[in-house]
Write a structure and sequence with these properties.
Helices cover 23% and strands 31% of the residues. It is of the alpha+beta class and 179 residues long. The radius of gyration is 25 Å and the shape is elongated.
Length: 179
């Protein structure tokens, strides 16, 4: 871990100048500058003082908040085929059900349909990549074509159906995860 870089990130995030951090930690501005440029190494007690002055804990300071993986390729996708409903669901981000949103690619064969989702708190966005679908939202029935998108609050019963004779492919993002 680059301690100097992390110190600077937090200092800037909290809107502190090097002088303000130095004053809080009872150090010199020059010493803070050297630490941020990795030209000097603080003692453990000095580092703990700086971490406290930055309003964080050692655990938070040293935590690696970077996601392990941020780019996902087709071999990472999890795919489920549902022959009964003529559909294929591909989870584009593995384990996204534990996150705030869940993106899937839904392929509906002719006559295929999604599950019927009961009202719940959340929002949903879909983009029709290929084909034509019918979106049933509450009592409304709306045709959505390739290149068009939909967005709604999940407070009404809803689902989609493929109304064409060719496959329909939808990028569907839900929050919270519901697939």
């Amino acid at each position: 871990m680059d301690i100097g870089k992390r110190m600077k990130e937090l200092r800037v995030l909290y809107g502190l100048t090097q002088q303000e951090l130095a004053d809080r930690a009872e150090l010199t501005k020059g010493f803070i500058s050297q630490l941020e440029r990795n030209q000097n190494t603080p003692s453990i007690s000095t580092l703990l003082d700086i971490i406290q002055c930055l309003g964080t804990t050692p655990a938070e300071f040293f935590a690696n908040d970077e996601p392990e993986q941020i780019v996902f390729k087709s071999q990472d996708y999890f795919k489920k085929t549902d022959d009964e409903n003529n559909k294929i669901i591909e989870w584009l981000v593995p384990n996204a059900q534990k996150d705030i949103m869940e993106p899937v690619r839904l392929t509906l064969k002719p006559g295929g349909r999604s599950e019927i989702y009961l009202p719940h708190s959340g929002e949903e966005f879909g983009y029709v990549l290929k084909g034509t679908i019918k979106l049933i939202y509450g009592r409304r029935s709306i045709t959505v074509k390739s290149g068009e998108s939909f967005y709604f609050n999940s407070s009404k019963k809803h689902h989609v159906e493929n109304i064409s004779s060719k496959n329909a492919v939808i990028l569907w993002i839900t929050t919270p995860p519901s697939f």
